[in-house]
């Protein structure tokens, strides 16, 4: 094993189940020698995330709903109490109402638009502000995005706009946190069959279309996304910040 993340501690937000991209990243981090801490959003998810943590050899699973400032503060208080220094933080959190994904974007409700922005984009700002003081010697902050941020993808709708906002947040946070030696990047993964992706209407058609057009003639493997996260969190990625790195079998370069 290469152990690219040996002696590093990573906090991963967004491991909901074993099919999530965050789960693949967490496993890769453990494989590379990192001490991994996970969070769960609610008591309903607690047991699942604790079991996943034990299964992969991760450390604690801690509660944190990023839309609740008091829970974010409690998470940081717990990490400080444990004298934790973070080297990497992975933000794999996004949400939009099913009805706002199903209807044309022009019909997006005000409430639905604001909800998607708060959970999918502003939460990165919340997480960055809270965890930056724990990256005492610098570190890496990573998030997950998708091609729908820069191109119109049928049925992605309000989430595409939220991902565009997320990518802008990456650039501004990279500028703000760079003097603290904290790098901020996003990985734009190709379509992957996750539980959340099933909320996008006709998602299966997206999976069918990519192999026909992507240069590598296949869909994206979650392990490829996880290995890119390892690179960005490791010292190998020390000169990379403010970027969106595509891991999508090359699909984003194609015109037709």
What does this structure look like?
The chain is an alpha/beta fold. It has a single domain (9-249), classed as 3-Layer(aba) Sandwich (Rossmann fold), CATH 3.40.50.720. It has helices spanning 21-31, 43-56, 69-81, 98-102, 110-131, 157-177, 203-213, 222-233, and strands spanning 9-13, 35-40, 61-63, 88-91, 139-145, 182-189, 244-247. Strands 3-2-1-4-5-6-7 form a seven-stranded parallel sheet, sandwiched between helices. Strand 2, helix 2 and strand 3 (61-63) form a beta-alpha-beta unit. It starts with 8 loop residues before the first strand and ends in a 9-residue tail after the last strand. The model has no long low-confidence stretch (mean pLDDT 94).
Attribute tags:
8 helices; 7 strands; 43% helix; seven-stranded parallel β-sheet; 256 residues; Rossmann fold; single chain; alpha/beta; globular
Helix-strand layout with pairing:
Elements: E1 9-13, H1 21-31, E2 35-40, H2 43-56, E3 61-63, H3 69-81, E4 88-91, H4 98-102, H5 110-131, E5 139-145, H6 157-177, E6 182-189, H7 203-213, H8 222-233, E7 244-247
Parallel strand pairs: 1-2, 1-4, 2-3, 4-5, 5-6, 6-7
Helix pairs in contact: 1-8, 3-5, 5-6
- Helix percentage: 40-55%
What average pLDDT do the residues reach? 94
**How many angstroms does the end-to-end distance come to?**
40 Å
Taken together, the total number of domains comes to 1
Any idea what the CATH superfamily is called? NAD(P)-binding Rossmann-like Domain
* Main CATH class: Alpha Beta
Order of strands across the widest beta sheet?
A: 3-2-1-4-5-6-7
3D shape: globular
Per DSSP E runs of 2 or more residues, the count of β-strands stands at: 7
Oligomer: single chain
In the predicted model, the low-confidence regions spanning at least 5 consecutive residues are none
Determine the number of helices (DSSP H or I, runs of at least 4 residues). 8
> What fold name goes in the CATH topology slot?
Rossmann fold
The class by helix and strand makeup works out as alpha/beta
The CATH architecture term is 3-Layer(aba) Sandwich
Write the H/E string, N to C: EHEHEHEHHEHEHHE
